[in-house]
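Q: Protein A?
A:
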Amino acid sequence: MSKQLSLLITLLTICTYAVAGNQSLWEQGNLYYQQGKYDSAIYSYEQIEGRNTNVYYNLGNAYYKLNNIGGAILNYERALKADPKNNQAYENLYLTQTRINNRIQPVPRIFFIRWWNSLTQSNLANTYAILSVILFIVLMVYYSSKRLGLFDINLPNQLFVAIAAMCLIFIVLGATAANKQVATDIAIVMENNASLMKQPEYGNSSSLIPEGTKVNILKSKSDWYEVKLPDGRIGWMLKEDITKI
């Protein structure tokens, strides 16, 4: 028991120091930012462990002040991944994207794809999980009461099937939304005029991709990623030129 208590005290001490250290770095970064020392602010923010949406947002602002478009967009995107309701990050992301030279315009999405994406936003995962659990409990309580004869309740078969179907739909929507929370197949181009190759090999590039462009990673091979650009083009880029969100 004494060893367990000692271990618990040690863990609590470590957690306390970590929290205190993060708070100190946060305040130090904010002070540097207010003083216009954006490089130092970035250094402090990036030392914070377990960065949240506020830290990523401030990082994005600091990179923006240094005209580092890739770093700003990357951190605004990370802020939104941590909290899709961060409206300030949305606004600053949009503003930063307007500064991308020769920006690649995305292909307009079909209406039902936009509709599906809005239904499966990552921040809705918990909501769908709760709804599916509630409906499942309702179904189980009704089924058990019928079997045991506890309640004289007769739901129409169509209603029972509809509730079961809704439960299944919420499970699918929740799983899709949760998957978006951990998805790592989206990345930001960090180098200006990064080369897009037809094959994973060095040589003359087929296109030059501007810094700050968001790409979908399709697969990996050695030092290369096969990526899909916003306009639908597919090619290979060096891993060192892009960073996953």
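Q: Protein B?
A:
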Amino acid sequence: MRYLIITKRHIMIFAAVFVSFAVLSITSAFALQNKNRLLPIYSVNTNKKVVALSFDAAWGNEDTQDLIDILKKYDIKATFFVVASWVDKYPESVKALHDAGHEIGNHSTTHPHMPKLSTEEMTNEVKTCNEKIKNVTNTEPILFRAPYGDYNNNVIKTLGDLNMYTIQWDVDSRDWMEGHTAEKITQDATKNVQNGSIILFHNAAVNTPAALPNIIENLKSQGYSFVKISDLIIKENYTIDHAGRQQSNEDNNSGSSSSPNNTSNSSEFGSSSN
């Protein structure tokens, strides 16, 4: 009779093979998950020195006219993402923004965490807000920003099915943070800007009106000009890379897409309180 003698060396070899197999399986599963992950637009790959200023309006209305006046002074058009309840409370401000040439985007109806909703609930959130905006501006939004920057595949797909583009940001002014001074807001809003950046601000943030002129002048001195998000993004035949950066397939020959839905490799992105 022959006996199988298992030595310490055999155990170590077996353990190494097992660990390697486990790591490979986990890596493959993670890669497959990321490959199928849908992303919103964080920024746009462009050789033009352009950026987009965006404001989320969900709560107060103290500084809307101040923002309109500052942007008018510099002849800049921005994009404002509004919640339906904000439209209900301040329809005159929505109209004033629209009449001043600014773009009105959809920020949901009740400001929920969208991934927690069913597809039907998401659709109702978006359609209700769209209807309220259209009633005031006679224009239906094509842009959506998820409350809290919170999204998953179903959010992106649902908005794509509604022929809308889901928009994030790659530069956060952090004006929503308590005690954030105008100087600090200016630093955060300008230090990581690149061509095609989308910068996040908030309506009714205490120090944003004080910071905004300095931010605009700082970026202008760097050669940047300002456009609305709908004039910045690529509407068709594009992909989104792992950093959420939208790029034209005509430039990179990386495939094609004809709807706001896009699949991309990605790592997890952080959210902001908005």
